[in-house]
Amino acid sequence: MGLLSRLLNRTAQPAQHPTAVRMLEGASGKRWPSTPAFGATGSEVLAGAAQVRGRARHLRFNDPTAGNGAEILKTALVGYGVTAASLSPVDRDEQDAAFNKWAEANQFGALLSEVADALVTDGESLLILRTDDIGALRLQHVPAEQLDESYSLELGEGRYIAAGIEYDADDQPIAYHFRPARPTDQYQTFRAPVRVDVADVIHIFRKLGAGQTRGLSWFAPVILPLNELSQLQDALQVNAKIQAMMCGFIIDQNGTGPNPFDSENADLDLSIEPGAMRVLPAGWDVRFSQPQQMAQAVDLVAVSLRQIAAGLQVPEFLLSGDMRGVNYSSARTALIQFRSHIEAIQHTVLVPALNRIWSRWQLLESLRGTNSADPAAPAEWHFPKPQWVDPESDAKATREMLDMGLISRRMAVAQLGYDVAQVDAEIAADRTREAELGLSFGVIKPEQTGIQS
Fold first, then answer.
1. How many angstroms separate the Cα of 227 from the Cα of each of 62, 85, 234, 256, 424?
2. Position 337 in a domain
3. Cα separations in angstroms, 352 against 79, 120, 204, 211, 419
4. pLDDT (tens digit per residue) in 271-286
5. Model pLDDT for residues 122-150, shown as the tens digit of each residue
6. How far, in Å, CA of 207 to CA of 275, rounded?
7. What residue numbers bound the domain in which 420 lies?
8. What InterPro entries would the database entry show (predicted)?
9. Is residue 409 assigned to a domain?
């Protein structure tokens, strides 16, 4: 067979496809062409963090659903404030009292509330550790936009600035460059960035992937659904207003006769009252507008709320405030999962930042000569206790675990948001005062009932 014959035969033969193709459906795609791929986490966050932050702030302060979601997360994270319990073996009580005094004087609880709000809405929170005139610690909360994402620069010798953060040759942050701003600034103006050493800055954000250097708003997955839901609710409200309007149209069926409703015949009464019967001239008719109602509108809003709640990782009944379909079991299951999520963020994101505040406070107090405890002693942080769905059942379960030796009293008290040493001291003081006054509460003693044991 010649070369030409072989080419013709090969062309004429039908194409044979393999019987099996190894392929990941998620990497293929007939239903994926219009959806872009997501690149490296660090670069993607830097590219869109500022715009996402601006949109999230708009929703947080203008949309009631977004505002409620932010308040739920903020309250769950820090509540009315976080307290510290020193683990120093010497002068522990005095150190706790001194820190509580400093926290009260500097409104530490309110500052943590601001930090949590910024962490949720902006995706990150920045604190600068400063000192006041007497050498005590002062915390300055800086808005995220002052650490400009667009400020990047090569410094040479492997050093560089990326998104306002300066790195050394080993890619370790060594300083932050903040753009100064004043509360009275109405418009953004350029001011030269101020370099602040990394030891004096606490950068709080939740890392979503390797290489991420700036925070991303927690509203990022739900910004579009929130905006669509807001527009849907506006449309439904306008539709309801239109449906509430009874608009009538007087129609001349023939179009040939004179208009009996002109100014000369204004004495014709066209008002409508219950049970009224009106006589129209011959050839005239009345029709009323009948705007169509949107079917399944309530179900669509409910589905959208569940989607937004899932994106914020908040129970849907808390976000919407609708408790009609909630029972004890479903509420308990949802709250347990929500509290586990919050506890993970508290101990992986907030506690490291709080430890740095504690260390700097101890150092400055030791330099001032007001700290007699170990300046290197760590602290244990107690977050406000979550409210129980069924306090009696939870208390019984805790007591059974204590009796079985599964947890200690210190762990049980810490789960309530208290320090066990402080609780024991208060109990001892109560018992002493009760004995002095001849009072007795709690367990009834046999001698009080007159029964001999």
1. 11, 43, 11, 52, 51
2. no
3. 18, 17, 9, 19, 19
4. 777 877 777 777 778 8
5. 999 999 999 998 999 999 999 999 998 88
6. 69
7. 390-439
8. Phage_lambda_portal
9. yes
